[in-house]
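Example (one chain per record):
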Amino acid sequence: MKISSILDISGCRKKLASSNKEETLRIMAELLAKNPASGTETVDTLLAGMKSREDLGSTGMGNGIAIPHCRLEGMKDFALALTVCNKGISWESIDGRSVHIICAIAGPLEATDEHLRLLAGAARVLSKGKARYELLNSETDFSLRETFLYHLSPVTTKQRKASRKKLLLMVLQEEKAYNDVMELFLEMGIEGAVTINSDMMGPMLSNVPIFAGFMDVLGRSRPEPRLLLTLIPEEEVGNTVSAVEDITGDLDNHRGACIIVLDTISIRGSLETL
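Predicted structure:
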């Protein structure tokens, strides 16, 4: 999936003049319709598809972001549109805040996996404060597009050849970091992962009477950590760890997250979701 072709310059608008969600969705449908990938789909069809998705629940992610999207039978490929509205639009977002950055996605009805990966990629980019700041301050449609592509570029989805795989074990204590890593794995096309809810040493020791006075120090109030296991092609371990560190920060200087990579002697079966 080549994002640079999906996000055509014709689908980027630096300043959106709109006062409400209905009007904004129509403008996004117009931008999507300009992309050759939209094929014979009309503005009205694209608009209806996005509105049907909104009926299932708002696509306002919080932090001033909305990612309206739809899958349509007549789409040839994926089309993406991106715009910024400094005024802010009410979108029934999960945090109640107005939306300032809208990224619309339309794709073929049958391309479920690719659609999910594209959604995850857009969500990952727009969840970064630095990316949002740069998008909001883009001076041209071209710089708006290039900023989005730049922040998306560290992770690419590509066809993998059969290769030796490593077992990656990751411990994450922070809920947000876990959610972001799951989105990252989806975007990267990692076939599957297993999550195990775990306990850290501190809270366990806090249950021992002799350590009762040290409950806060030992971290009883911290979130329950998760142990995550997945298989990674050997040649992609470095890129995967680097992409995770984009979320967690430098793991050597960050408490609450750890990655261990182990050799595998034999693998039978798959962690891919049924």
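Caption: The chain has a mean pLDDT of 83.
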